[in-house]
Amino acid sequence: PDRRFPSGILPHGPEANRLLDIWDSDYRQTTPARWDIGRPADELQRLVTDGKVGRCRVVDMSCGSGSDAIYLASKGFEVTAIDVAPTAMGQAQQKGRKAGVSVQWLLADILAPPDLLPFDFVYDRGCYHVVRDQNLPAYMETVRRFSRPGTQFLLLASRRDEQSREETSGVSEEELRFDFLSLFDMEWLREIRLESNRPGIGPPGWSAFLKRNTSP
């Protein structure tokens, strides 16, 4: 009963159905996926606490079980939260009701989202580095549609460091700059550790804070 009907057209076909089941199965396990930390990301909290973004219309581009979206809603933001995994959306809805906040939850493919008005603030924790190798042009078109000149964007992504012995998944600094700097000016790009619910230090990551420029 808590599974959302899709908004727009979800991926389809044998390979797409296989991927959809993989993404959704992460939320059907008794142990949460390692990125599902059950609280808002530190970088997001710091951004809001420091006043870098104020109450506005925001889209969470890959909301998972909803912790970040619920946090933003609790701070007075008007939140639209998107994910392709129906089980995650069901969990997010339940958590949102328990927290007493209002969020527009959309079960949708971020690479082919429904028509939405541009937002004042775009937030992505963990989507970009996953879909980049699948369909970067579609992801960037979504970012373009979701933003307008002046829109702020917090991007938290997995970092690939060729000089490190750690896992090499993720994106390099050069790739990230190449992908975004035609549409956005960059206030910062810094190395962080992404939070994980597993013991030990989290995986290497990027925190990028950008502002949409006047490009079309």
List keywords for this structure.
single chain; 216 residues; alpha/beta; 7-stranded mixed sheet; 6 helices; 21% strand
Q: Which structural class best describes the helix and strand composition? A: alpha/beta
Assign an overall shape.
globular
Helix content: 25-40%
Strand arrangement in the largest pleated sheet: 3-2-1-4-5-7-6
The residue ranges in which pLDDT falls below 50 over 5 or more consecutive positions are none
Quantity of strands, as a count? 7
Report, as a whole number of angstroms, the end-to-end distance: 41 Å
Summarize the helix and strand pattern as letters: HHEHEHEEHEHEE
Strand fraction:
15-25%
- The radius of gyration computed from the alpha-carbon positions, rounded to a whole number of angstroms, is 16 Å
| Average residue-wise pLDDT | 89
Helix tally equals 6
What is the makeup of the main sheet? 7 strands, mixed
Describe this structure in words.
There is one protein chain. The protein is α/β, with parallel strands linked by helices. Helix content is 32%, strand content 21%. The chain contains six helices and seven strands, in the order H-H-E-H-E-H-E-E-H-E-H-E-E. The chain has helices spanning 14-25, 42-49, 67-74, 86-99, 128-146, 173-180, and strands at 57-60, 78-83, 103-107, 121-125, 152-158, 184-193, 204-212. It has a seven-stranded mixed beta sheet with strand order 3-2-1-4-5-7-6, with helices on both faces. Strand 4 (121-125), helix 5 (128-146) and strand 5 form a beta-alpha-beta unit.
